[in-house]
């Protein structure tokens, strides 16, 4: 459920003149403005109503774009480079360590709701391999030990900006 008030949601929609051609911008802004970090059914219905679209059409858009989420996400979504250079160097170490240390497989959320990890295409840090990215922060030259230290630091709230 979103933590935005109806007025706050409507302000975001009106910022784009409730223009259906701006639906992606509207959905991204609504999602990022919400501390919940996803678009709930109520928000999807509101967007559909305001833009004179069907809920099905809005949901199709939400489910098509990977940046948009329709269910709660882990607090820390860890992105691991899975491009060919990383996959053939240290990428497998990162995936194996995250699975071992978090106790979940790729795309699964930990029981405490803190972590989820998945592969993404190259994010341009090949020279600092192996790397992970959380939001806009890149953590590089990782080892099994530094991955464990990072997970502990995140659990302890040592990165409030993330």
Key features of this structure:
43% helix; 4-stranded mixed β-sheet; alpha+beta; 162 residues
Describe the structure.
A hairpin with a 2-residue loop joins strand 3 and strand 4. The longest helix has 12 residues. Helix 2 runs antiparallel to helix 3 and helix 3 packs across helix 4. 43% of the residues lie in helices and 11% in strands. A four-stranded mixed beta sheet has the order 2-1-3-4, covered by helices on one side. By secondary structure, the chain is of the alpha+beta class. The chain is elongated. The chain has seven helices and four strands; from the N terminus they run H-H-H-H-E-H-H-E-E-E-H.
């Amino acid at each position: 459920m979103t933590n935005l008030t109806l007025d706050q949601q409507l302000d975001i929609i009106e910022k784009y003149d409730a223009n259906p051609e701006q639906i992606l911008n509207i959905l991204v802004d609504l999602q990022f403005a919400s501390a919940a970090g996803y678009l709930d059914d109520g928000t999807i219905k509101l967007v559909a109503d305001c833009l004179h679209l069907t809920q099905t059409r809005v949901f199709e858009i939400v489910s098509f774009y990977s940046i948009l989420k329709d269910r709660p996400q882990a607090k820390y979504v860890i992105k691991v480079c899975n491009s060919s250079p990383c996959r053939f160097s240290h990428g497998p170490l990162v995936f194996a360590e995250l699975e071992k240390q978090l106790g979940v497989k790729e795309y699964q959320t930990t029981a405490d709701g803190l972590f989820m990890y998945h592969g993404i295409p190259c994010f341009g840090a090949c020279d600092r391999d192996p790397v992970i990215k959380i939001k806009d922060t890149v953590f590089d030259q990782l080892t099994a030990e530094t991955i464990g230290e990072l997970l502990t630091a995140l659990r302890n709230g040592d990165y409030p900006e993330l």
